[in-house]
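If it is no trouble, might I ask you for a protein's amino acid sequence along with its backbone structure tokens?
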Amino acid sequence: MYVAEEIGFEKFDILSQRGIGHIEDCREIVRTNRGEAIETSDPKRFFNDPKIADQLRSAHTVGCFYIESPAMRQLISKLKCDDYLTLVAASSIIRPGVASSGMMGTFIERHLNPEKVEYIHPAFKQELEDTYGVMVYQEDVMKIGHRFGGLDLADADVLRRMMSGKYRNKNHMLEIEDKFFSHCRNQNYPEEISREVWRQMESFAGYSFNKAHSASFAVESYQSLFLKTYYPLEFMVAVLNNHGGFYDREVYVNEAKKAGANICLPCINRSIFDTSIIGKDIYLGFDCILNLETKLAQSISEERKKNGPYLGIEDFNQRTGAGLEQIIILIRCGAFGFLDVDKKELLWEAHLILNSNKNMNFQLGQLFQSSNEKPKLPVLITDPLEDIYDEIELMGFPVSGSIFDLAKSNYRGNACADNMSLFAGQTVRIVAYMVAEKWVKTKTGKPMKFGTFLDNNGDFIDTVHFTQSLLKFPLRGKGLYLIEGRVTIEYGCPSIDVQRCAKMPIRPDPRSI
């Protein structure tokens, strides 16, 4: 890329990202499941749709390109963002540079109270009135460097590029800095204003988007929002089949469940390799079963399509060639549930039919083919928790129950995401499941962490763990936590300033008892 630029060639960054796959696949899933042909190529019509505006304003954006992360959902809530131009700005101010410069907070404040905006210099009003005098895009750095700092546009562009880490030349940087401050002195700008403008430019220029980048991101976000608003189940299936986004698979499954889907375990007579949907029934695909051989996972539905539904374990074994180990995995994750037979009984049957002795396997196979009689088993005791533990082990998350079912205690706290705002300034206790965390550093360089949790209703709760709390009560990976902390509300967006937290004791795995 550097050589291309030096000899005057145009260069293009061609990127691949799965958000486009979400959109394309969702259209096909809607056509198959509902018989509707939908179009997303003219996104301008989405900008004034009141339902999409409500979806955006409420930050119900999980699965939507670029606007689903905890930080972005919080920003959307704080901005009360419900229009395209605000989302364009949000797509850039969420970038690390703008946030670290402190100007993200300034932008939110000015967006909510535009009548109170005071411009640091007339150049800011002239060039940045649309963004309330805040440098949001890369072009803004060039504009202010040129209009306020007296740099020619070539130097202003070099400044932007240097701050992005490209062609970082310390001497050249010092030369541009000297030009900037020399011009400011010649214009008799107050020293503190000149220093503040340079600080803002220096702190975030390399970590913000250009406006065209933000605008195109926001277009794709709106396309995703349209699908999530009007076709939420099909959209979540498309997200799952494109390997999600910011979160793990379980969060998208939870989102589909909240939208009214009936989440079904993989089934050898209903599921395909990917996740699929029939009406409101979402069948998880064989691709989500850990340790299931890819070749088998792909062949199950192909064989079924050719020769009809599977009749049972023996029929499945003969038609797919699946070995005992793979069939055990399928039994334990519920893929033979259509037989309406206890999983433990099915495991016994599988061992009988697929005995490692080939001769015995053949004889037993003939016996079962020629007779409907099966060995009589004693009454097998089954604990519902076994299914939950099986599903967590084999798929990473439970389907037939909730992770909260594993808690030894029935206590769920005195607050939830839905009523958190009622407890502003108060200390609450809540049991929640951690789904994401992010390490950051304070201005003094000390560690702190942001947590993202789901409450018992499947709604998001955001937490802040400052250094003192984090050192005494660290987060120890995914799991159920009892959280105690003070509810803080910033621009209408609640979070918990955690004072204490610890993992909840869970009920023992009955499979090992």
